[in-house]
Design goal:
Length: about 190
């Protein structure tokens, strides 16, 4: 697969991550208002049961994608890219171990680096969207504002990372909710 095709594929995956996160949030809200045996509550229970595996798959694909861009496509990662990688790469192993162990408390050690990575990705996304802004992170050798990928008129590499962090955070909190009796319910 060539780099433009790969980039379009990853752009679609990023949008799917955002749609999946929004869908999971909507399902959580809808299931909260339905009786325990309802189809919505059952769908949320199913999602909660597989949430850590879904988070792991997204972290793995994100990690492999970033390695493709730097090692195969030879895109030079800037400092902001490295900070996002530093936040994402360990999540792959952490989410794998937590999924295997069914550790629903993983949110306590996944949320902090994922939130930090999300912050860097959001900042970097706006730099790519508005390249006239200057930042102390950018250098001539490692420019933060160069759009190596700009699919669908707005999807850049940091946007893809941002979508992955949002999805992973959503999944660890969905998994966390499974520990509280009925996943989408507050106590009556």
């Amino acid at each position: 697969m060539d780099t433009p095709t790969f980039s379009l594929f990853f752009a679609v995956l990023a949008l799917a991550c955002l749609a999946g996160a929004l869908g999971a949030m909507g399902l959580a809200l809808a299931a909260r208002r339905r009786p325990a045996g309802s189809a919505l509550a059952g769908a949320y229970d199913d999602l909660a049961a597989s949430a850590l595996w879904l988070g792991f798959v997204v972290a793995l694909v994100t990690t492999l994608g970033s390695l493709y861009y730097s090692e195969v496509a030879h895109f030079v990662p800037c400092k902001l890219c490295w900070y996002q990688r530093i936040a994402m790469y360990p999540l792959t192993l952490t989410l794998l171990v937590s999924a295997v162990r069914r550790d629903r408390t993983v949110w306590t050690y996944v949320a902090p680096p994922a939130l930090i990575g999300l912050g860097f990705a959001a900042y970097h996304t706006q730099l790519q969207a508005f390249p006239g802004h200057h930042t102390p992170f950018c250098t001539v050798a490692e420019p933060c504002t160069v759009r190596y990928v700009w699919e669908l008129g707005f999807v850049s590499i940091p946007f893809m990372a941002m979508a992955a962090f949002v999805f992973i955070l959503t999944m660890v909190f969905v998994a966390r909710s499974a520990d509280r009796g009925h996943p989408a319910r507050s106590p009556s």
